[in-house]
Specification:
By secondary structure, this protein is mainly beta. The protein has one domain. It contains two helices and ten strands. The protein has an eight-stranded antiparallel barrel. Strand 3 and strand 4 form a beta hairpin.
């Protein structure tokens, strides 16, 4: 009986030593992967093509279904558009397993800064910005001319927010 107890004790000590040796070092979190005030992390998405198209999206989900972030849109052969956005996020659609954000994007392109409506659907590892004809709403904000006709043709893939391509 004593032999079994000593064997179990020795195995437990060896297991403990093995776990200590194999323990991974935990790095200090960065701003990009820390949860915000409600514990939700910053979500980052990217899209690149061999033809030179590059889109990045950083999305912070805040308290009270508010969202904010940044969006960069660089299509090959066209001027870069980039800027910050903020708005609201709808509830999770259980059928799509996604949420939709309705935001206003303060966007700079061709040396001009405008405000544009930006709809984003995200979930299940992807995010898709809306594209469609836009018009000035009379208050200096460009909105979708027909929100029912917007399309979501580009799926950005989720990525680590520390990915150098996101920092571009």
């Amino acid at each position: 009986m004593k032999k079994i107890i000593y064997t179990i004790l020795i195995l437990a000590v060896l297991l403990g030593i093995a776990l200590l040796i194999n323990k991974k070092e935990v790095s200090a979190p960065t701003d990009e992967n820390v949860g915000n005030s409600n514990g939700n992390p910053t979500l980052c998405f990217i899209y690149n093509t061999e033809g030179g198209d590059h889109l990045t999206l950083k999305l912070h989900v805040l308290d009270d279904n508010k969202v904010e972030g940044s969006f960069i849109q660089e299509f090959a052969g066209k001027d870069k558009k980039s800027g910050e956005f903020s708005g609201t996020a709808g509830p999770l659609d259980p059928e799509m397993m996604a949420r939709k954000a309705d935001t206003i994007w303060t966007v700079t392109g061709e040396g001009v800064t405008n405000k544009e409506e930006l709809l984003i659907i995200w979930g299940e590892g992807t995010a898709s910005p809306a594209f469609g004809e836009m018009k000035d709403n009379g208050k200096g904000v460009y909105v979708y001319a027909n929100p029912l006709k917007v399309t979501y043709p580009i799926n950005l893939s989720d990525t680590d927010c520390n990915d150098p391509a996101v920092q571009k």
